[in-house]
Automatic annotation (TrEMBL):
Cofactor: pyridoxal 5'-phosphate
Gene3D superfamilies associated with the record: Alanine racemase, Lyase, Ornithine Decarboxylase, Chain A, domain 1
Entry protein name: Alanine racemase
GO biological process entries: D-alanine biosynthetic process
Source domain of life: Bacteria
Organism: Igneacidithiobacillus copahuensis
Residues where N6-(pyridoxal phosphate)lysine is found: K35
Described function: Catalyzes the interconversion of L-alanine and D-alanine. May also act on other amino acids.
Domain Alanine racemase C-terminal positions: 241-366
Assigned keywords, A-Z: Isomerase, Pyridoxal phosphate
EC number: 5.1.1.1
Protein backbone atom coordinates (compact mmCIF):
# COMPACT_ATOMS: atom_id res chain seq x y z
CA UNK A 1 0.00 0.00 0.00
CA UNK A 2 1.44 3.39 -1.00
CA UNK A 3 -1.33 5.94 -0.49
CA UNK A 4 -1.78 6.43 3.27
CA UNK A 5 -5.53 5.85 3.52
CA UNK A 6 -6.90 2.71 5.12
CA UNK A 7 -9.68 1.27 7.23
CA UNK A 8 -8.54 -0.88 10.14
CA UNK A 9 -10.90 -3.64 11.27
CA UNK A 10 -10.46 -5.05 14.76
CA UNK A 11 -10.69 -8.83 14.99
CA UNK A 12 -11.17 -8.72 18.76
CA UNK A 13 -14.00 -6.18 18.49
CA UNK A 14 -15.89 -8.34 16.00
CA UNK A 15 -15.44 -11.41 18.20
CA UNK A 16 -16.57 -9.49 21.27
CA UNK A 17 -19.69 -8.16 19.55
CA UNK A 18 -20.58 -11.63 18.28
CA UNK A 19 -20.33 -12.84 21.88
CA UNK A 20 -22.75 -10.07 22.94
CA UNK A 21 -25.28 -11.37 20.41
CA UNK A 22 -24.82 -14.93 21.63
CA UNK A 23 -25.36 -13.89 25.26
CA UNK A 24 -28.64 -12.24 24.30
CA UNK A 25 -29.84 -15.38 22.50
CA UNK A 26 -27.81 -18.29 23.90
CA UNK A 27 -29.81 -21.03 22.19
CA UNK A 28 -29.94 -19.46 18.73
CA UNK A 29 -27.62 -19.77 15.79
CA UNK A 30 -26.15 -16.57 14.39
CA UNK A 31 -26.46 -15.46 10.77
CA UNK A 32 -24.34 -12.31 10.52
CA UNK A 33 -25.38 -9.66 8.01
CA UNK A 34 -22.36 -8.81 5.86
CA UNK A 35 -24.22 -7.41 2.86
CA UNK A 36 -23.17 -4.15 1.20
CA UNK A 37 -19.49 -4.97 1.74
CA UNK A 38 -20.16 -5.73 5.40
CA UNK A 39 -21.76 -2.32 5.93
CA UNK A 40 -18.60 -0.79 4.45
CA UNK A 41 -16.22 -2.71 6.71
CA UNK A 42 -15.03 -5.07 3.95
CA UNK A 43 -16.98 -8.28 3.36
CA UNK A 44 -14.05 -10.59 2.64
CA UNK A 45 -12.10 -9.49 5.71
CA UNK A 46 -15.11 -9.39 8.03
CA UNK A 47 -16.32 -12.80 6.85
CA UNK A 48 -12.90 -14.27 7.54
CA UNK A 49 -12.71 -12.74 11.02
CA UNK A 50 -16.25 -13.75 11.96
CA UNK A 51 -15.65 -17.27 10.70
CA UNK A 52 -12.60 -17.46 12.97
CA UNK A 53 -14.82 -16.25 15.82
CA UNK A 54 -17.27 -19.11 15.19
CA UNK A 55 -20.24 -17.47 13.51
CA UNK A 56 -22.75 -19.95 12.07
CA UNK A 57 -23.76 -18.34 8.75
CA UNK A 58 -23.79 -15.13 6.73
CA UNK A 59 -26.63 -13.03 5.30
CA UNK A 60 -26.03 -11.18 2.04
CA UNK A 61 -28.17 -9.24 -0.40
CA UNK A 62 -27.66 -11.44 -3.44
CA UNK A 63 -26.00 -14.47 -4.99
CA UNK A 64 -23.40 -12.09 -6.48
CA UNK A 65 -22.34 -11.02 -2.99
CA UNK A 66 -22.20 -14.64 -1.87
CA UNK A 67 -20.10 -15.59 -4.88
CA UNK A 68 -17.56 -12.89 -4.02
CA UNK A 69 -16.78 -14.88 -0.87
CA UNK A 70 -16.68 -18.27 -2.57
CA UNK A 71 -12.91 -18.32 -3.08
CA UNK A 72 -12.36 -17.87 0.68
CA UNK A 73 -13.76 -21.38 1.26
CA UNK A 74 -15.16 -20.47 4.67
CA UNK A 75 -17.27 -22.88 6.69
CA UNK A 76 -20.29 -20.60 7.37
CA UNK A 77 -22.81 -20.73 4.55
CA UNK A 78 -24.30 -17.70 2.82
CA UNK A 79 -27.99 -16.79 2.58
CA UNK A 80 -29.18 -14.48 -0.21
CA UNK A 81 -31.85 -12.41 1.54
CA UNK A 82 -33.70 -11.29 -1.59
CA UNK A 83 -33.48 -14.75 -3.13
CA UNK A 84 -32.67 -15.46 -6.77
CA UNK A 85 -33.07 -12.73 -9.37
CA UNK A 86 -33.29 -15.26 -12.20
CA UNK A 87 -33.92 -18.98 -12.62
CA UNK A 88 -30.27 -19.49 -13.56
CA UNK A 89 -29.11 -18.54 -10.06
CA UNK A 90 -30.84 -21.53 -8.49
CA UNK A 91 -28.49 -24.28 -9.79
CA UNK A 92 -25.53 -22.03 -8.90
CA UNK A 93 -26.80 -21.61 -5.35
CA UNK A 94 -27.28 -25.37 -4.97
CA UNK A 95 -23.85 -26.19 -6.41
CA UNK A 96 -22.06 -23.76 -4.07
CA UNK A 97 -24.17 -24.40 -0.98
CA UNK A 98 -25.77 -20.95 -0.85
CA UNK A 99 -29.15 -20.68 0.83
CA UNK A 100 -31.98 -18.72 -0.76
CA UNK A 101 -34.91 -16.75 0.61
CA UNK A 102 -38.11 -17.15 -1.40
CA UNK A 103 -40.10 -13.93 -1.35
CA UNK A 104 -42.31 -13.96 -4.48
CA UNK A 105 -44.21 -16.44 -6.65
CA UNK A 106 -41.87 -15.96 -9.63
CA UNK A 107 -39.06 -17.47 -7.55
CA UNK A 108 -41.29 -20.40 -6.60
CA UNK A 109 -42.01 -20.97 -10.30
CA UNK A 110 -38.27 -20.88 -11.08
CA UNK A 111 -37.73 -23.70 -8.59
CA UNK A 112 -40.10 -25.83 -10.65
CA UNK A 113 -38.42 -24.87 -13.96
CA UNK A 114 -34.79 -25.23 -12.87
CA UNK A 115 -32.78 -28.41 -12.45
CA UNK A 116 -30.10 -28.99 -9.83
CA UNK A 117 -28.36 -31.97 -8.24
CA UNK A 118 -27.01 -30.83 -4.86
CA UNK A 119 -29.47 -30.24 -1.98
CA UNK A 120 -30.81 -26.68 -1.92
CA UNK A 121 -31.87 -25.04 1.35
CA UNK A 122 -34.35 -22.16 1.44
CA UNK A 123 -36.18 -19.89 3.82
CA UNK A 124 -39.69 -18.65 2.97
CA UNK A 125 -40.14 -14.92 3.57
CA UNK A 126 -43.27 -14.01 5.51
CA UNK A 127 -44.45 -10.41 5.42
CA UNK A 128 -45.20 -9.84 9.09
CA UNK A 129 -46.00 -6.16 8.57
CA UNK A 130 -43.06 -4.36 6.98
CA UNK A 131 -44.66 -4.72 3.54
CA UNK A 132 -41.37 -4.72 1.68
CA UNK A 133 -40.78 -8.33 0.60
CA UNK A 134 -42.49 -11.60 1.37
CA UNK A 135 -45.76 -13.50 1.29
CA UNK A 136 -48.87 -12.67 3.27
CA UNK A 137 -50.30 -15.20 5.69
CA UNK A 138 -52.98 -16.13 3.14
CA UNK A 139 -50.39 -16.63 0.39
CA UNK A 140 -48.18 -18.97 2.44
CA UNK A 141 -50.59 -21.90 2.02
CA UNK A 142 -50.32 -21.55 -1.77
CA UNK A 143 -46.51 -21.32 -1.58
CA UNK A 144 -46.17 -24.55 0.37
CA UNK A 145 -48.70 -26.29 -1.87
CA UNK A 146 -46.67 -25.36 -4.96
CA UNK A 147 -43.42 -26.50 -3.35
CA UNK A 148 -44.97 -29.83 -2.36
CA UNK A 149 -46.18 -30.30 -5.95
CA UNK A 150 -42.57 -30.76 -7.05
CA UNK A 151 -39.43 -28.80 -7.84
CA UNK A 152 -36.35 -29.43 -10.00
CA UNK A 153 -34.05 -30.93 -7.39
CA UNK A 154 -33.64 -31.87 -3.72
CA UNK A 155 -35.09 -29.10 -1.55
CA UNK A 156 -35.07 -28.47 2.20
CA UNK A 157 -37.28 -25.72 3.57
CA UNK A 158 -35.50 -24.43 6.65
CA UNK A 159 -38.23 -22.20 8.02
CA UNK A 160 -39.98 -18.86 7.82
CA UNK A 161 -38.01 -15.61 7.81
CA UNK A 162 -39.24 -12.07 8.41
CA UNK A 163 -38.03 -8.61 9.37
CA UNK A 164 -39.12 -6.06 11.99
CA UNK A 165 -39.81 -2.50 10.87
CA UNK A 166 -39.51 -0.64 14.19
CA UNK A 167 -37.19 -2.70 16.36
CA UNK A 168 -34.88 0.30 16.85
CA UNK A 169 -37.67 1.74 19.03
CA UNK A 170 -38.50 -1.40 21.02
CA UNK A 171 -41.27 0.29 23.01
CA UNK A 172 -43.33 0.75 19.82
CA UNK A 173 -46.40 -1.55 19.99
CA UNK A 174 -46.02 -2.39 16.31
CA UNK A 175 -43.16 -4.69 17.26
CA UNK A 176 -45.51 -6.83 19.34
CA UNK A 177 -47.94 -6.99 16.41
CA UNK A 178 -45.25 -8.22 14.05
CA UNK A 179 -43.86 -10.72 16.54
CA UNK A 180 -47.34 -12.12 17.19
CA UNK A 181 -48.03 -12.41 13.44
CA UNK A 182 -44.73 -14.18 12.88
CA UNK A 183 -45.26 -16.70 15.66
CA UNK A 184 -48.78 -17.40 14.37
CA UNK A 185 -47.40 -18.07 10.90
CA UNK A 186 -44.73 -20.36 12.36
CA UNK A 187 -47.39 -22.29 14.29
CA UNK A 188 -49.52 -22.73 11.17
CA UNK A 189 -46.84 -23.41 8.57
CA UNK A 190 -43.88 -24.54 10.65
CA UNK A 191 -44.79 -28.24 10.28
CA UNK A 192 -43.99 -27.87 6.55
CA UNK A 193 -40.43 -26.74 7.41
CA UNK A 194 -37.43 -27.82 9.47
CA UNK A 195 -38.47 -25.27 12.12
CA UNK A 196 -35.36 -23.12 11.67
CA UNK A 197 -37.22 -19.80 11.66
CA UNK A 198 -35.51 -16.39 11.69
CA UNK A 199 -36.86 -13.01 12.79
CA UNK A 200 -34.70 -10.70 14.96
CA UNK A 201 -32.24 -8.10 13.73
CA UNK A 202 -29.67 -6.37 15.96
CA UNK A 203 -32.15 -4.17 17.81
CA UNK A 204 -34.58 -7.01 18.46
CA UNK A 205 -31.79 -9.31 19.64
CA UNK A 206 -30.82 -6.79 22.31
CA UNK A 207 -34.20 -5.40 23.32
CA UNK A 208 -37.06 -7.70 22.26
CA UNK A 209 -36.58 -11.15 23.83
CA UNK A 210 -39.96 -12.27 22.49
CA UNK A 211 -38.58 -11.98 18.96
CA UNK A 212 -35.80 -14.53 19.45
CA UNK A 213 -36.00 -17.47 17.04
CA UNK A 214 -33.71 -20.41 16.18
CA UNK A 215 -31.76 -18.13 13.83
CA UNK A 216 -30.89 -14.53 14.75
CA UNK A 217 -29.55 -12.04 12.18
CA UNK A 218 -27.32 -9.37 13.74
CA UNK A 219 -25.89 -6.73 11.48
CA UNK A 220 -25.15 -3.35 13.00
CA UNK A 221 -24.27 -4.69 16.44
CA UNK A 222 -21.54 -6.92 14.99
CA UNK A 223 -19.70 -3.78 13.90
CA UNK A 224 -19.98 -2.22 17.35
CA UNK A 225 -22.68 0.27 16.39
CA UNK A 226 -25.81 0.85 18.42
CA UNK A 227 -29.05 -0.32 16.76
CA UNK A 228 -31.21 1.44 19.36
CA UNK A 229 -32.09 5.12 19.24
CA UNK A 230 -31.94 5.64 23.00
CA UNK A 231 -28.80 3.62 23.80
CA UNK A 232 -25.16 4.14 22.87
CA UNK A 233 -22.81 1.39 21.75
CA UNK A 234 -20.96 1.65 25.06
CA UNK A 235 -24.25 1.27 26.96
CA UNK A 236 -24.80 -2.01 25.08
CA UNK A 237 -21.23 -3.28 25.67
CA UNK A 238 -20.42 -3.03 21.95
CA UNK A 239 -16.94 -2.22 20.63
CA UNK A 240 -16.47 -0.28 17.38
CA UNK A 241 -14.74 -2.52 14.84
CA UNK A 242 -13.73 0.20 12.36
CA UNK A 243 -11.09 2.90 12.48
CA UNK A 244 -10.42 5.02 9.37
CA UNK A 245 -6.82 6.28 9.22
CA UNK A 246 -4.81 8.55 6.95
CA UNK A 247 -1.66 10.67 7.21
CA UNK A 248 -0.57 14.23 6.66
CA UNK A 249 1.03 14.45 3.22
CA UNK A 250 1.62 18.23 3.17
CA UNK A 251 1.67 21.14 5.61
CA UNK A 252 0.59 24.64 4.54
CA UNK A 253 1.42 27.83 6.45
CA UNK A 254 -1.36 30.38 6.09
CA UNK A 255 -1.38 34.07 6.96
CA UNK A 256 -4.39 35.75 8.49
CA UNK A 257 -6.91 36.33 5.70
CA UNK A 258 -5.66 33.55 3.38
CA UNK A 259 -8.35 31.44 1.69
CA UNK A 260 -8.24 27.65 1.63
CA UNK A 261 -9.23 25.10 -0.99
CA UNK A 262 -11.96 24.90 -3.65
CA UNK A 263 -14.37 27.81 -3.64
CA UNK A 264 -12.16 29.65 -1.17
CA UNK A 265 -14.68 28.44 1.40
CA UNK A 266 -12.57 28.90 4.52
CA UNK A 267 -10.57 31.98 5.47
CA UNK A 268 -7.84 31.84 8.06
CA UNK A 269 -8.60 34.17 10.99
CA UNK A 270 -4.90 34.29 11.95
CA UNK A 271 -1.51 32.90 10.98
CA UNK A 272 -1.77 29.13 11.26
CA UNK A 273 -0.69 25.71 9.99
CA UNK A 274 -2.99 23.38 8.08
CA UNK A 275 -2.38 19.74 7.21
CA UNK A 276 -3.39 18.09 3.96
CA UNK A 277 -4.43 14.43 4.28
CA UNK A 278 -4.77 11.70 1.65
CA UNK A 279 -8.53 11.24 1.89
CA UNK A 280 -11.44 12.84 0.07
CA UNK A 281 -14.96 12.37 -1.17
CA UNK A 282 -13.69 9.83 -3.70
CA UNK A 283 -12.94 7.67 -0.66
CA UNK A 284 -16.39 8.24 0.80
CA UNK A 285 -15.64 11.19 3.07
CA UNK A 286 -18.74 13.36 2.86
CA UNK A 287 -18.01 16.82 1.40
CA UNK A 288 -20.15 18.53 4.04
CA UNK A 289 -17.89 17.41 6.88
CA UNK A 290 -15.18 19.92 6.00
CA UNK A 291 -17.52 22.90 6.05
CA UNK A 292 -18.98 21.59 9.30
CA UNK A 293 -15.47 21.28 10.80
CA UNK A 294 -16.14 17.68 11.78
CA UNK A 295 -13.80 16.29 14.45
CA UNK A 296 -10.73 14.20 13.62
CA UNK A 297 -7.66 13.28 15.64
CA UNK A 298 -4.11 14.18 14.64
CA UNK A 299 -1.40 12.20 16.45
CA UNK A 300 -4.13 11.23 18.91
CA UNK A 301 -5.00 14.87 19.66
CA UNK A 302 -8.40 16.47 18.93
CA UNK A 303 -8.57 18.44 15.70
CA UNK A 304 -11.09 19.06 12.94
CA UNK A 305 -11.56 19.24 9.18
CA UNK A 306 -11.46 22.56 7.34
CA UNK A 307 -12.91 23.92 4.11
CA UNK A 308 -14.20 21.95 1.15
CA UNK A 309 -13.16 18.34 0.87
CA UNK A 310 -11.64 17.45 -2.51
CA UNK A 311 -11.94 14.15 -4.36
CA UNK A 312 -8.67 12.78 -2.94
CA UNK A 313 -7.63 15.28 -0.28
CA UNK A 314 -8.88 17.11 2.79
CA UNK A 315 -7.59 19.73 5.22
CA UNK A 316 -7.11 19.36 8.98
CA UNK A 317 -6.40 22.06 11.54
CA UNK A 318 -2.96 21.88 13.19
CA UNK A 319 -3.39 24.67 15.75
CA UNK A 320 -1.46 23.69 18.87
CA UNK A 321 -0.40 20.34 17.40
CA UNK A 322 3.25 19.65 16.61
CA UNK A 323 2.46 17.58 13.54
CA UNK A 324 4.25 17.19 10.23
CA UNK A 325 4.26 15.09 7.06
CA UNK A 326 3.79 11.41 7.86
CA UNK A 327 1.94 11.91 11.12
CA UNK A 328 -1.27 9.87 11.54
CA UNK A 329 -4.79 11.27 11.27
CA UNK A 330 -7.79 9.33 12.55
CA UNK A 331 -10.70 10.32 10.35
CA UNK A 332 -13.51 8.27 11.79
CA UNK A 333 -14.35 5.30 13.98
CA UNK A 334 -13.18 3.82 17.23
CA UNK A 335 -14.67 5.01 20.51
CA UNK A 336 -13.14 8.46 19.95
CA UNK A 337 -14.98 9.28 16.70
CA UNK A 338 -18.11 7.10 16.59
CA UNK A 339 -19.88 6.60 13.28
CA UNK A 340 -23.11 7.38 15.12
CA UNK A 341 -21.87 10.91 15.91
CA UNK A 342 -20.89 11.51 12.30
CA UNK A 343 -24.29 10.24 11.16
CA UNK A 344 -26.06 12.60 13.54
CA UNK A 345 -23.99 15.53 12.24
CA UNK A 346 -25.03 14.71 8.67
CA UNK A 347 -28.65 13.94 9.50
CA UNK A 348 -28.44 10.30 8.47
CA UNK A 349 -27.81 6.86 10.02
CA UNK A 350 -24.60 5.01 10.85
CA UNK A 351 -25.39 2.34 8.22
CA UNK A 352 -24.95 4.97 5.51
CA UNK A 353 -21.70 6.35 6.91
CA UNK A 354 -20.03 2.95 6.75
CA UNK A 355 -21.36 1.92 3.35
CA UNK A 356 -20.12 5.20 1.84
CA UNK A 357 -16.49 4.23 2.40
CA UNK A 358 -15.22 3.45 -1.09
CA UNK A 359 -13.92 0.10 -2.26
CA UNK A 360 -10.58 1.74 -3.14
CA UNK A 361 -9.82 2.25 0.56
CA UNK A 362 -7.97 -0.87 1.77
CA UNK A 363 -9.43 -2.75 4.74
CA UNK A 364 -6.73 -4.10 7.04
CA UNK A 365 -6.92 -6.54 9.93
CA UNK A 366 -5.75 -5.32 13.34
CA UNK A 367 -6.02 -7.06 16.73
Amino acid sequence: MSRPNQVEISASALAHNLAVARRAAPHARVMGAIKANAYGHGAALVATLLAEAGIDAFALASIEEAEELQSLQLRPRCTALAGPFSAGEIPLAAAHGHRLVLQNFAQVAWLRESRWQEPLEVFVKFDSGMHRLGFSHDELAQVFAQLRAGVGGPLRILGLLSHLARADTPEDPYNAEQIRAFHEACTTFGPHTAGEHSLPNSAAILALPGAITPWIRPGLLLYGLSPLHARSAADLDLRPALRWQSEIIAVRRLRAGDWLGYGASWQSPRDCRVGVIACGYGDGLDRRLGLQEAPVRVKGQPSHLLGRISMDLAFVALDGIAADIGDPVQILGGPELPLEDCAEQLGTISYEIGTRIAQRVPRLRVP
